Every structure is written in C-alpha cells, then in structure tokens.
C-alpha cells in the first residue's frame, strides 16, 4: 500500500538519519494512514485516509 492519503494527497516526507558519527543515510516519514469505510458518491467504499483528515471531519463514515 502506498503511503498516500486519498483525501488530501499527503505523502511521505524524506530526510536523513544523522547519528553521532555524522554518517547520513536516507529515511522517510510516512503519514498515519488508516483504511476506513466511507461513503463516496453515495456508496460505501474503503479508502486510505490520514488521521488528520479523520480528526478534521473531512470524511463521512
């Protein structure tokens, strides 16, 4: 499953791990994606939604 919200299109953020030795390695921060049942165009469907959209009420369950 791709780490992308179907409502706001929020995706992963990229950066570096930076330990004490200063050797940077790549890493990514995934958004908190939940698979919920929501009504889309009057029919219930399973959509991948981030928790910030759920908390803001952007999804009708």
Overall description:
The protein is mainly beta. The protein starts with 12 loop residues before the first strand and ends in a 5-residue tail after the last helix. The chain has a two-stranded antiparallel sheet. The chain has one helix and four strands, in the order ββββα. The model has no long low-confidence stretch (mean pLDDT 95). The protein has a single domain (13-56), classed as Ribosomal Protein L24e, Chain: T, CATH 2.30.170. The protein is elongated. The chain is 10% helix and 43% strand.
Number of strands: 4
User: What's the gyration radius in Å?
Assistant: 16 Å
Mean pLDDT: 95
Please count the helical segments: 1
Can you describe this structure in just a few lines?
It comes from Tessaracoccus defluvii. The longest helix is centred in the last third of the chain and has 6 residues, at 51-56.
Element layout with pairings:
Blueprint: E1 13-17, E2 25-29, E3 33-40, E4 43-50, H1 51-56
Antiparallel strand pairs: 1-2, 3-4
Could you list some keywords that capture this structure?
61 residues, two-stranded antiparallel sheet, mainly beta, two-stranded antiparallel ribbon, elongated, Ribosomal Protein L24e, Chain: T
């Amino acid at each position: 499953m791709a780490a992308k919200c179907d409502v706001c299109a929020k995706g992963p953020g990229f950066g570096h791990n930076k330990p004490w030795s200063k050797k940077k390695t790549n890493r990514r921060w995934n958004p908190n994606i939940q698979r919920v049942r929501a009504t889309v165009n009057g029919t219930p469907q399973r959509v991948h939604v981030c928790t910030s959209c759920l908390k803001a009420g952007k999804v009708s369950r």
